[in-house]
Amino acid sequence: MGKLREERFIIKVVEMHYKQGMSQLEIGKKLNVSRTTISRTLAQARKEGYVQIKINYPDGAMTSTETILEEKFHLKEAVIACVKDGEDLSEEIAFYASDYILRTLKNHMTLALTRGVTLQKTVECLAKDVRLRFLKVDDVKVVPLMATTNIPLTAEKSYRLAYSNYLIDEVAKIINGNGYQLLAPQYVTSSEIKEHFLNEASVKEVMDLARAADVAVMGIGTVDQNSAIINAKLIPVEEFERMQEKGGTGEILSHVVNKDGELIEDDFEGRLISLSLEDLKKIPIRVGVAYGMEKKDAILSVLKGQLINVLITDDNVAEYLAKV
Question: Which of 98, 120, 268, 287 shows a CA-CA span of 20 to 30 A to 142?
């Protein structure tokens, strides 16, 4: 008899909460018991199978794949963009990246960024977000993760813009933060010159800020003929081909890594002014933003190296990563 009475009470609480939409406090008042008793009863109902929760996912939802990627690659979060015919995937990716930036912003934090076409679209999307009207954050520092790239004068204006210091200053302006610049070339002619730059007070100060960043948002590049390193004419083609021969698969912060995410040892590294991968790994939130099946192996290499712990990508790449 006691069991039947207990069951009747559980069913009554379950119906009041899930069918009638009553809060735990309201149920407690009506049944003359504490809110804690109602909370325990609902937990017991789920545990013993009186309640089974079914989520009806909207068409195109990739939540289960996101969970697979999070567990497989030890990610804090995977965000997968899906588009219907005629929609622009780059715009969708840019929205999710700008959304991530907005929801992680906090007072007195440091946000570090790379450059590139994907990041430029992200900044454009950020500038249009209506939530900026309600954004109240104080003393946010916006810093670059690498030194300055000098894009050839022959490149299109939009491409030049994507690899300029403009992105750092623009984000700082949008969120009413403070922008900082690394006043050094990204690639120099010798390791001695690199050391001179790194020891300059103005350069060292910003590199130290980048090392201490709370959040880093980065593009991920390929090591093929369409790579950002080649398009920006950052290094001579023969050096680039040498990195390919050494097993270069992915690029992040202009560092080239192999299929397992390990740094390719090369003279190029001794002349590159960019946050090291060891220092990158110490940043608590490391967001990789990349999409398109042509980048799938580059993204996988960066994931294997645990160089990022948040991934924003598209559904095709996500399905590939989930199965590989």
Answer: 268
